[in-house]
Amino acid sequence: MQKFCRKLAAFLSIGALLSATSVYAAPGETLKDKVHAGETAGEGFVAQARYWEELERYAAEGIAAYQGEDIVLSPGNADEPQEMAEYLGETAFLWDTGIEEISWTVDVPATALYAIRVEYCAMTGSSATIERSVYINGELPFYEAYNISFSRLYVDAGEPAVNSLGDEVKPPSKEVEQWQTAMLYDRQGLYSLPLQFQLKSGRQKISLRAVNGDLAVKSVTLTAPTRLKSYAEAAAEYEAKGYRPATLSARMEAEDNILLKNNSASGLYSDGDPMVSPRSLGNTVMNAVSLGDTGNNFITFNLSVPEDGLYQIVLRDKQCWGDGLSMYREIAIDGEVPFREFAQYKFDYGKNWRSEVLADDDGQPYLVYLKKGERQLRLTSRVGEEYNTRILRLLTESSEELSGLLLKIRMITGSNPDVNYDYELARKIPELGSTFDRIISKLAECREIVRKIGEGRDPTLYEQMKLIQVQLGELKDDPFVIAKRMNELTDSLTNFGNWISGLTSQPLSIDYIELMPPGQEVKDYHSNFFQLAQTVLVNFITSFVKDYNTVGTLHNASGDQPVLEVWIGRGKDWAETLKQLSDNSFTAEYGIDIHVNVLPTGQLNAGAVNSLMLAIAGGAAPDVCLGVSSTSP
Q1: Which long-range contacts (CB under 8 A, 24 or more apart) does 389-393 make?
Q2: What are the pLDDT digits (tens) for 357-411?
Q3: For residue range 217-248, what is the model confidence (pLDDT) as tens digits?
Q4: How far apart are alpha carbons 548 and 53 in whole angstroms?
Q5: Taking a C-beta distance cutoff of 8 angstroms, is the pair 142, 49 a contact?
Q6: Which stretch of DSSP H or E encloses residue 374?
Q7: Which of 129, 325, 342, 556 measures 20 to 30 Å from 445, CA to CA?
Q8: 71 - beta bridge partners?
Q9: pTM for the full model?
Q10: Through-space distance between the first and last CA atoms of the chain, rounded to whole angstroms
């Protein structure tokens, strides 16, 4: 009877899993059409090969890169010609998600690898991420081709304002419409070069399908994949053209020279280090720039070049995240990466601000030729193909294998296994041991890469991987205890996901940018004890006269205007954004001032004595509370 109950429980668990992941078509609608319309399964793209697998196949089969002329495709000349219209001075197709697909049948001149370049403009009116899929002859060529992102562009809407407390407030970001010409990259920034698509000679169908967001498309171009010269080749060209070293230097504060960004959250912030310029002492000063931390986020800075010549570029930066791991950026001048080494430049881990000359592993500075005038420096987040992409691949494969194995185990044990029952997992799942072996081996390789990145220092990630290695080894050696330690498998799966998310995050901060003649000494400034002590003392004294729980106002409030008291159980950055929006719109229109106070989240929840409950009992409750638990009365 007990055995029958276990089988019944397993059967019901399987049924629940299948029903939870099923997609059903409506009467008269095929399942294919249902999935094609964007339902949960998403046309089976999860089963597609990963791009790294395609790169290996390209190499194994000896598929060469295309070397011919560009093949320009216009939406107006598609298989189903689209109506073109004037948009920002250009003729383009205004593509919203109501139009599912644009396709072209192309006479491909040679079997080769092609890159795709799109000239587009992100249309305003929505903050939704713009995504499109690329299909070749009706099929996804690889997983990463399903959701390719197209950047929106933002600028700061003015200079930092000073509020009533004397603190500078970060200006809001404003989206701008501007034509862009961009190669197609994977959305996570795992690869330093644009995606390459294999096309066979003859008539081929190239399709772009709408996933999310609206954009104006001027043209789509099949072109030769990007080939970047090495620095040695670039240096030889400099010499052949007679470029001379610069004799003048220039320094640009990063916070004063932001031109464009594709992440509205990136940009200005305040750092309290005494050596960050301008100094933030007592009051908040927007004195540094936080670069976007997710794949393909970029910020473009203006460079004022004093004369034509070869310069070494110095960044005053801080990279104290990732617990010992490196961060990577693509460095482009006027939209072009000058040489291969700048496609994914590594910024090593360090706890403090530093003046870093962009240089090779031996410390030899890279020289860049710049013409006099206003130039643009773009820093784009990349994951780091040399190390981090390899780790992500191993973790992704391990996660998929462990997820599949865990499902098979659940099908046998049910969701609540009996810890004293022998399910004979090793016999019923013959690949149990070999799957554990593969995952353990991949974790071992990940640990070695992490140790290599840490340059002798073992980051926390190294020890976490070691712990899971040990746990999986014990479960492999004694499958009987798997039912008792099932939570360790689910925790391991969660950790894999957290590691993948963490490795794709690439934060970096910039204080200022310097252009210096070759050979000029770079001074690296560090805060000393007395400067740090002064900062602590001034901030301590200021705390007696400054209300840090109140968000300052950005307008001159008269004493007779009505006031709304608002308490917020969120972070101060969030509260400052709300206060800024209310000052610029609500208060300006209605003449009602908003007085915002920031409280710890727990002080606004029911179930215990807290500030909100005491204020209500004392008749001093605020007019509005934000961030309150739904259980509060």
Answers
A1: 389/52, 389/190, 389/191, 390/449, 391/446, 391/449, 391/450, 391/499, 391/503, 392/190, 392/500, 392/503, 392/504, 393/50, 393/52
A2: 999 989 999 999 999 999 999 999 998 877 778 888 999 999 999 999 999 999 9
A3: 999 999 999 899 999 999 999 999 999 999 99
A4: 53
A5: yes
A6: strand 373-382
A7: 342
A8: 222
A9: 0.83
A10: 50
Would you say the C-alpha torsion 71, 72, 75, 78 has a positive or negative sign?
negative
Round the average pLDDT of the chain to a whole number and report it.
86
Of 107-116, 160-169, 193-202, which gets the smallest average pLDDT? 160-169
Q: Write the single-letter amino acid at 389.
A: T
Residue 247: DSSP 8-state: -
Residue owning tokens 């950005």: 554
* Beta strands, E only, 101-249: 101-108, 112-122, 130-136, 148-150, 153-156, 161-162, 168-169, 173-176, 180-183, 197-199, 202-212, 215-223
- The span from the CA of 183 to the CA of 113, in Å, is 14
Comparing CA positions, the residue from 197, 209, 25, 195 lying closest to residue 111 is: 197
Residue type, 428: K
Of 448, 436, 355, 425, nearest to 398 by C-alpha is 436
Angle at 225 between CA 220 and CA 227, to 5 degrees: 140
Matching residue, tokens 């495709």? 73
Residue 87 Cα to chain centre, angstroms: 30
